[in-house]
Amino acid sequence: MLVKAVSAAPVALILGILIGDYLGPSPSHLFLFGVAIFGSLAGILFLSSPRDKSTSWPDAVSFLALSVLLTIVFMGVSVEQRSLNGLENWSLQDAVTKRSEVTLWGSVVDDPHGSRWTTEARVRVDKARLNQSGAQPFDVNRIIAVRAEASAARRLVVLSAGDGVVLRGWLHPLAGYDRYLRWFHVAAVIVATDLVSASRPKSLVYLVANKSRDLVLDGTADLSSKPRALMAGFLLGDTRDIDPEVINEFRSSGLSHLLAVSGSNVAFVLVLVGPLVSRFPRLIRLGAIFLVLIIFGAMTRWEPSVLRACAMAACAVFAAYIGRPARGVRLLGIAVFLLLLADPFLLHSVGFLLSVGASLGICLLAPIIALWLRGPNWFRLAFATTAAAQIGVAPVLLVVFGSIPLVSIPANLLAVPLVGPLTVWGLASGVASGLINLPAPDLAGALQWPTEVLAEAILGIANLTSQIPIDLSLPAVIGGLVIGGLFALGRSALRALRRRMIRERELVLPSR
User: Fold this and answer.
1) Each residue of 277-334: pLDDT tens digit?
2) pLDDT recorded at residue 48
3) How remote is the C-alpha of 316 from its chain's centroid?
4) How far apart are CA 19 and CA 12, in angstroms?
5) DSSP characters for 382-410?
6) How far apart are CA 390 and CA 88, in angstroms?
7) Is the per-residue pLDDT at 46 higher than 70?
8) What is the dihedral of CA 336, 339, 343, 344, to 10 degrees?
9) pLDDT score recorded for residue 482
10) Per-residue three-class SS string for 253-282
11) For the residues of 108-175, what is the DSSP string, one character each?
12) 57 pLDDT higher than 50
């Protein structure tokens, strides 16, 4: 019973987060944690106290399991309310309401995107100062969305995540469509009129990550424009340079997940790094793998799918280190629990939900589907994995987008076998080409030839399958479930009636 309660911990945490979201912002997290601790202590005391062995209820283990689940629910309520409260009550809240002019000191959270005339980014603000006489800087520690214009936009757009900035502009509250930014912990918007200064990252992780990122991107310089932009999306999750028409083709064909860095990318990175650290002692090897995961996460700017993949990989490596390897479902549950406990707003991220749904579908359904299929092993595994992932993400796609592209399964069957070689070769050849691009440009270009061919093939698959507009809408799914339920109910009723008729036919009445 206790093991089942621990397995249900992610569900209990999600329930608590949803309750906290409904209750709204509140600083009462200490009270909730107190109630949670009381529940845990009550369970432990009840477990250790003497009781009648003949009674089956209340059972001590069941009581402790219920106490653990209630504790986790309270924790979910607490972290969600505390996160919401941090967006409502902070040191610049009054200045945001008054739309004051301020100067901000901070660091860029993600890569700025936009044009020479308008650039957007998110900045983690460390200090701020109101632009009025005699005002002194004060600590802030909040994330603010930046909209830079004119000269500030041209200077901001060339920066990278981790770079330090000093901005001057006017604060605005989140309103309208901007309110979705709060799920990224954005507390306000600043319309920047001037980028006072910029500096390199202070974090060693971002220094290494940005250098590695630039090295990979420089290695793809010999590719044509579309494959080069596609490789930035495949390897680093950077879709800023991909043509909007190409993005629509990938979305229509159900291949848009390829443009987001996910578990397969993390696995390929670990495959490449594995031989380099295999001779290290176990503890050093564990630390080296964790460091690689952190640097790769920083390179990909900690997309929600990357967070999920890196957390699962870290849990798997640690479980193997302590000699307790775990199944995929358990690793996913632990990773989701830890991530939501650290950042409950991930529950509102479509990318995170799609990543978790696909992983859950693969863990639960792929082996079952593979057993049902007939044919070569490679086909069964590929089809089962693709179908299970699509089933896993179907609820999110239906609720968010209203439909599911049915062409996604054949499109993925054609494209996914190319993704592995493209990712491994693209990452390895990108680094090699970046290192030898200046001394041997011809050799660097030759290394990119397989990358060009594979990328063009995937672009062709996306273009071809996107022209088959067969979607499954939410009303159709609901109608299908209703019809299927009625069919199953009618079939059960007919079977029950048939069994009754057989029993009556075989009944022998005694003679008078």
Assistant:
1) 878 888 888 899 999 999 988 988 888 888 999 999 999 889 888 888 778 888 999 9
2) 59
3) 17
4) 11
5) HHHHHHHHHHHHHHHHHHHHSEEETTHHH
6) 38
7) no
8) 20
9) 56
10) CCCHHHHCCCHHHHHHHHHHHHHHHCCCCH
11) ESS--EE-SSEEEEEEEEEEEEESSTT---EEEEEEEEEEEEHHHHHHHTT--TT-EEEEEEEEE---
12) no
Residue 68 token pair: 């653990």
Per-residue b/e over 311-350, b at no fewer than 16 CB within 10 Å?
bbbbbbebbeeeeeeeeeebbbbbbbbebbbebbbbbebe
- pLDDT class for 219, splitting at 50, 70, 90? confident
What is the spatial distance between Cα 104 and Cα 128, in angstroms, rounded to a whole number? 4
**Count of residues for the chain?**
512
Task: Collapse the DSSP code of 186 into the 3-class scheme (helix H, G, I; strand E, B; otherwise coil) and give the result.
Answer: strand
Q: Specify the DSSP class assigned to residue 99.
A: T
Which residues share a beta bridge with 129?
Answer: 103
The per-residue pLDDT for 178 is: 86
Read off the pTM: 0.84
Looking at the chain, the number of H-run helices and the number of E-run strands are 19, 8
DSSP 30-42: HHHHHHHHHHHHH
Q: What average pLDDT does the chain have? A: 81
